[in-house]
Amino acid sequence: MLRRILVILAAAVVSLALCLFLEIVLEWPKVVVYVIGLAPLFLAAAAVGPANRNRDRRR
Question: Where would you find the membrane-spanning parts of this chain (predicted)?
Answer without folding.
Answer: 31-51
